[in-house]
Amino acid sequence: MSTLVKKTVNFTLNGKPLSAPEGTVILDAAKRAGVFITNLCSNPKLKPFAACRTCMVEVRENGEKKLVYSCTHPVSEGMEVFSDTEETDRYNGACLEMLLVEHPLDCPICDKSGVCPLQDNTDALKLYNGRFEIKRRNEPSIKTNPIIEFYLNRCIMCGMCVRICDEIQGVQALDYHKRGYQIKIGTANEEPLECEFCGQCITVCPTGALMDLTSEARGLAAMFTNTLTTCNFCSWGCTIRLETKKGRLIRIEGDETFDLGINEGNLCAKGRFGHGMVQNKKRIQAPMMNVGGSYKEISWDEALEMIVERLTSQVNRTGPESVAGLAGEKLTNEELYLFQKLFRGVLGSNQVNNLQNLRAPYVNRFQEKCFENGLVSQPITELENADVVLIFNSDIPSEYPVAGNSIRKGAIRIGTDILIANPRRVVFNNESRVDIRMTFKPGTDLAVAARLARILIDNRLIDTARVKAALPNFDALVQSLAPYTAEATEQITGVADSVLVRAAERFGRTADRFILIGNDILDTGQGEAVLDALLNLALLVHHGAEGQVSLYPPREHCNSQGAQDMGCTPQYLPGFVSIKDAQAVQRLREAWGVKDLKLDQEDRVSNLWQNCSTGKIKLLYIAGEDPVRACPRPAEVVDALKTVPFLVVQDLYWSETCQMADLVLPTCSYAEKDGTFTNMTRHVQRVKAAVLPEGEARPDFEIFYDLAEACGKPFSTFDVPEVQAEIQQVAPVFKGLFPGDQSRQWVPESAGTAPGFAPLPGPQNDGRSEEYPFKLITNNHMFHIGNYTQYCKALVDIGPECIAEINREDARKLNIEDGDRIRVESDSDAVELPVAVGARSTPGVVYIPKNWPDVPVNKLRNGHEGLVSVKISKVG
Ligand code: SF4
Predict the structure, then answer these.
(1) How many CB atoms lie within 10 A of CB 299?
(2) Of 402, 680, 789, which is best to mutate to test ligand 1, by the most ligand atoms within 8 angstroms of its C-beta?
(3) What is the pLDDT of residue 239?
(4) In the list 63, 322, 629, 793, which could disulfide-bond 276, CB 3.0-4.6 Å?
């Protein structure tokens, strides 16, 4: 909640007393009260515009009567509003009639038919017989890009697409062109659309002027069955609407009802156009068994029998700790819960983990430290009301795209200050008056965060006496910040101290603050220290300044958070409680009916790959993960998977990991199953099936259920609601959090044991060598994440190729031009790909997105912690 306080004003609407926050326009206040006023160009996300002129209302205030546009006129104390007088209907009707002069009556073949505000308004004003001569436009349909079609004959010039592209997306790909009767919406010089392809323009278009080409004109919106669910790509967790017809998934839309989920209908390209991965013939169609290196189809019964036989005999021969499970971060909470229950409760093995915890267990420790220090953080729906947002090492439009929409909305509405710390000059266009860029040398994240803390203290931007009284270790923190002087930090980071001082001043002021942390910090080799430094920064303002501060651990996939919360780690039980919590263990014993549940075993999964290679783990079960592609230690992973005596992999698509499995099982996508995901800000959100499973695929949920039964220890819960009830029983933190369509944030039961500040290590050398003079930065691409988006035709159409980015200065020195092919080589491997030359990468940095199978960028790292040093040469 912003620290700006708004008064409430009282007014009447059609005689009914109402109240609304000061500044609310009449149209929005009426909507909240359930009163319909005709309009075509208003959207609560956008600045008032008054283009369509169809929302006129009568207002009486201070003894005066006047007609005003309800989308721009704010309510005021004592105001009387009338929305349905003869005069307002006549005025609004006349404006609508003029729009209908040009608008073709091709409703039977228009995508928007049935959900079209133009139809609704025409009906509301009973405009069945127009008075004016019809004069249609005759524009051709424009299809110059693979996924968005322009059909300008239906355009009513409301400007919604232009405004959302500018205000919320920050892209400005569309604008009004020409003037008078010639005016039309389009791209500059009618060039093909080149943008972030978020498709927001399609959602807000009140007519069928902008259409989703990926739906291939397979039906009208009114004929589709709609299923509200949660996006299965990044960890932001947007609510999406799956539109299906006759069992086929036709398209995905945002839900603009504004009271569901966290995204107010905003979606990115992946969320909106990434439906091609669901009903795809390339999916694994049936269980497959490895017979001498080639795979043959077997039945589900045969597959499950074989797994159970191997699991039980292995447990009997070498003990439960010799069988291990790796949980995918895209499974639902209920599936993850059953996966760890299968291992702990049925097989007696505590050897269960997930890739994020395997790589960076300190991220979960960071979350725990936040709670212990009383930083529970607000629901992310408050991001748009933040006074200050610090974006730390995250390329927001690629990593958490819809977060950018909320931040831009805040910048427009309440003047959010935007502070961006990143080693690349990431693009984040917005209308903020304060937009501070801290572009630091790669690998110096810690120095930037530490210096900001030191400025808060040295420049007395916070009340240090209050801080010291509130938390232990303040003096130790101050001592550890000693090396981070203005001169030293400027030299280490390359950021002028005056910029850091200005950022610290904005961050330290009375404000409601959010810190968004990117997954890139995990690649710095100092991830834990960087998280500690950001937590210190948050604690300093939490205790030493006015206003709140919210920060969340970085998470990558749609249910990375859920994998930790549901206990798919050797350290935590469901409910994110320590394995050492005797009460929590007792709750599991009672709920599972396992009296001898023993979890205090040697931890073999924090070192999973080595323990597979050395024979300590004899059976590995991977559910929905491709570690060969996703893990920064691919050679180690390959060795482990080749060595482990029995490997089961279940997934949607065949992967390099499947290629080493003894048994591969086909599982369901998010659109084929029920459950919940938990986003990176701990909002538990519904996942709902919209189509039947592809081929013989089964939900992971059912597979775990059948395995437990075949092991002779069946689960006592039979469906998703029953599993949710059990989760609430064993993990009280989830009580009341499985709420149907609503999204609720889980909050830890107890917080505030206050371990205090973490003293920081000194600055590290960036380790640049003469032989390998570049630093490699990798992350998810704007159109791709994980290994499923490569199966989405629309996303491949707009993002077909992996392209590296280097700075112009470096390109000049290496005699490389934009579009050339380059070789990027580390001391362990090399990749070749085309390059884009520009300013986004700073000198000495090469950026390569990590989502293309033909550019396995993780092989360049191959186990190195810290930023990888590489050299670049031109190919050919
Ligand atoms: Fe999906 Fe993330 Fe895009 Fe939202 S921001 S639509 S969750 S990929």
Answers:
(1) 11
(2) 402
(3) 96
(4) 793
